[in-house]
């Protein structure tokens, strides 16, 4: 009985340690958030000229570009692998984007929170223990769905059904590809360089080699 109790305590301590943020986690997550925020700002500038031809094809199709604002949370979650990482990096990226200057103003912060939660919930469903490609894709899809819901309520209230379907589907697809697949590939690439040697992602890469 004592042995079982001791084993449970050790397991509990290990789990707590796995979920506890270290200083290096905070620093790297912050770097990801700030760098992503600058990319977000650049994506803001490119949105209108890039989305115009897509919208001309079908209203709502411009959401295919939405993944350009979703990758921060997925990438942060894949690298840090701690509760709150996806939400933190996505929100910080939104804050930086808003500070630098964005056409959506304060609404950018709301988007950051909602989109970060979309990815965070997926990582939580896998108990922050599975970071394979399909999980990254699901996290991107979650962020994309969150983006669509938020935008349809805040920016496009009263939209007709075709627009809602196209916008939602495009957002999810964009999240899967731009935020999910590309973030996973970026994580793998960084791991191979040794830059993530203090993270589980980096150790996994070295084991594969």
TrEMBL record:
<keyword id="KW-0812">Transmembrane</keyword>
<feature type="transmembrane region" description="Helical">
    <location>
        <begin position="87"/>
        <end position="106"/>
    </location>
</feature>
<keyword id="KW-0472">Membrane</keyword>
<feature type="transmembrane region" description="Helical">
    <location>
        <begin position="164"/>
        <end position="187"/>
    </location>
</feature>
<feature type="transmembrane region" description="Helical">
    <location>
        <begin position="112"/>
        <end position="129"/>
    </location>
</feature>
<feature type="transmembrane region" description="Helical">
    <location>
        <begin position="136"/>
        <end position="158"/>
    </location>
</feature>
<keyword id="KW-1133">Transmembrane helix</keyword>
<feature type="transmembrane region" description="Helical">
    <location>
        <begin position="21"/>
        <end position="41"/>
    </location>
</feature>
<dbReference type="InterPro" id="IPR017195">
    <property type="entry name" value="ABC_thiamin-permease_prd"/>
</dbReference>
<feature type="transmembrane region" description="Helical">
    <location>
        <begin position="61"/>
        <end position="80"/>
    </location>
</feature>
<protein>
    <submittedName>
        <fullName>ABC transporter permease</fullName>
    </submittedName>
</protein>
<dbReference type="Pfam" id="PF09819">
    <property type="entry name" value="ABC_cobalt"/>
</dbReference>
